[in-house]
Amino acid sequence: MLYAIGVLVIISLIFWSHPFASTRAAVSPDLQHTESSDHSNTITNTTLGVQKIFAISLPSRLDKRDNIVLGSSLSDFHVEFIDAITPDDINPKTYPFNWNYDHRPVEYAARRSHLNALQKTVHERLGSAIIMEDDADWDVSLKTQLQSFAIAVRALQPTDPPSHTHPNSHSKSPYGNDWDILWLGHCGIECNPSEPSFLTPNDPTIPPPHHFLPYRRDEPPQHRPNTSRLTCTITDGVCSLLYAVSLRGAQRILSALSANPSHLAADIDTGAQFDVSLGRLCGSGYIKCFAPYPALTGGYRPAEAKGKGSDINGEEGEVGRPFGGDVEGPFSHGVLFSTLMNMERLLRGEATVKATWEDVDVVEMGLGDVEVLEGSIESPVMKI
Ligand SMILES: *[C@@H]1O[C@H](CO)[C@@H](O)[C@H](O)[C@H]1NC(C)=O
Ligand SMILES: *[C@@H]1O[C@H](CO)[C@@H](O)[C@H](O)[C@H]1NC(C)=O
């Protein structure tokens, strides 16, 4: 009932319908500076500071693969595809015993596709990976944004986890060493009010609130000026459009959602769609999850006939016949200076990019104008 919107997990595969006072403890600028320069060249590498980037995509949707390949080439990172599976591919015996059969097979297929990406992360012993769905979109300054995010999220992990608890399951990550999920592209989170958060002021890549994705959760209780980005420990999240997972996180999620759900299933309902289950795992404390607010990444829909819809909810279509409805778009959701919306400008070598919307303070920005940003730790808004 709480999660009545059963289609949330697939929201990114479909057409997105539309779009307390805290005390400040300044982080020493010197310290931050040294730390960020230590890590900046790994975050700007071709795997964005993790070991691999996976995009989940149906092998037949070659058009969506074009978007991801072209967009990542413009932003200089490398993506590997994970074949999304369809209900036809599902062996009924793969369902965990506690799967909630009220959800549709297509929702299980979407969850299983994410689990396959996590399985690969564990299989290849990747220290960390980014997993995205195939209609993700990101800001042209993603690499700079990620460096700022890393400063924030590292500040929230002051100590490493005890190494004996997870031998070989975490490596030195530029995003810190005590995280399971960095939920970068979401459509709603709950920030833990009993934990410190981090505020990064004057971020020119934040859309104004009226252009936020439709968020399925309330705004965090932490104070946030419109131009500041908040980073916090989360107790829930929705939409698995793009996230980073550590090896430890991938192991834990694979255990909870497939290999051995019995223990956790007694306490939390993990028989739901992937994003809903993931949010519950974050809330249970079994995995440690962080997120920026608003989300760092968003979604893209190219110009297409309205009737086409999504891989999951759209018409099937017939080869050689157009889909019904007027052509609409392209649209970007949640990203102010969208890579995919600006692809022609970028390919023409223009020096500026256009904002996704006209009614924003800055409608055109120079490439490279965004800088790595420092910020400050904020005290919990609620005392335990
Ligand atoms: C990018 O940096 C990360 C973190 O240091 C590292 O694990 C990864 O292997 C690097 N990627 C490449 C392609 O060198
Ligand atoms: C923040 O954004 C909201 C919604 O767009 C707007 O109503 C409000 O005036 C903004 N606040 C400031 C200080 O600009």
UniProtKB/TrEMBL annotation:
Belongs to the glycosyltransferase 25 family. Residues 1-25 form the signal peptide. The keyword Transferase applies. The lineage of its organism: Eukaryota, Fungi, Dikarya, Ascomycota, Pezizomycotina. The keyword Nucleus does not apply. InterPro entries: Collagen_mod_GT25, Glyco_trans_25. This is Glycosyl transferase family 25 domain-containing protein. Residues 51-149 form the Glycosyl transferase family domain. It comes from the Eukaryota. PANTHER family: GLYCOSYLTRANSFERASE 25 FAMILY MEMBER, PROCOLLAGEN-LYSINE,2-OXOGLUTARATE 5-DIOXYGENASE/GLYCOSYLTRANSFERASE 25 FAMILY MEMBER. It comes from Aspergillus keveii. Keywords: Glycosyltransferase, Signal, Transferase.
